Amino acid sequence: MATPYVEDESGKYIAATQRPDGTWRKPRKVKDGYTPQEEVPVYENKFVKFFKGKPDLPPGMSPGDEAQARQQQQGIPGIAESETAGLSKTAKRNMKRKEKRKLQGPDSNVEALINAVEMPTSNPAEATNDPSGAAAEKAKKIKNLKKKLRQVEELQQKLDSGEIKQATKEQLDKLGRAKAIQDGLLQLEEDS
Predict the structure, then answer these.
(1) Which intervals carry biased composition (Polar residues)?
(2) What are 134-152's pLDDT values in tens digits?
(3) Of 95, 126, 134, 152, which is the most exposed, with the fewest CB atoms less than 10 Å away?
(4) If residue 174 lies in a helix (H) or strand (E), which one and from where to where?
(5) From CA 121, how far away is CA 126, in angstroms rounded?
């Protein structure tokens, strides 16, 4: 929107205008070389100018050749060109993979999962047949049982000394398992 200038013998003026409420604005003097704010071009740095001036076609290619090249380009089957136009190479590859999965059908993955679930699972220590792994497993169990036995003994001492006046149900259950823990510990120590 260019501002209408009025030229007079004393210089350029922006003419007096009437406001919507009926009052008048004063005419304003405009200096030589003044460019109104709305007419000032937007600043563009060198990078932007370079890419605006850069041709869309590769060097040496005519616009007719470009049309032929676009027609020869193959799109992804089953997907319109407009969908893949702005996608990166990786995104296009992922879309191809999705298409393949759709074509294979959802049942192929389900059958593989069912077969995996139906196979009997075994203890990882037995599957490896690694004596050091089995020994480590036993050592871990022995350590765990010794810790539980130590906790039971500490609880019994606290009850005997009167530190704990009334034992809770969980504490009584723990005391009741003391014999089973000792038997399990003895059995593991005999096996090793």
Answers:
(1) 120-131
(2) 888 888 889 999 999 999 9
(3) 126
(4) helix 169-176
(5) 11
Of 76, 107, 105, 104, the C-alpha closest to 92 is 76
Please calculate the CA angle 25-29-33 and round it to the nearest 5 degrees. 135
For residue 176, being part of any structural domain is answered with: yes
Please check whether residue 65 lies inside any domain of the structure: no
Burial class of 159 by CB neighbour count within 10 A (0 to 12, 13 to 18, 19+): middle
Q: Give the Cα separation of 136 and 5 in Å (integer).
A: 95
Is 117 a member of any domain? Answer: no
Rg (CA), the chain: 43
Structural domains of the chain, count: 1
pTM, 2 dp? 0.33
* Residues whose CB is less than 8 angstroms from the CB of residue 44 and which lie 6 or more positions away in sequence, other chains included: 52
Q: Tell whether 82 is covered by a domain.
A: no
The confidence score (pLDDT) of residue 101 equals 83
How many Cα atoms sit within 13 Å of 156 on the Cβ side? 12
Owning domain of residue 147: 134-191
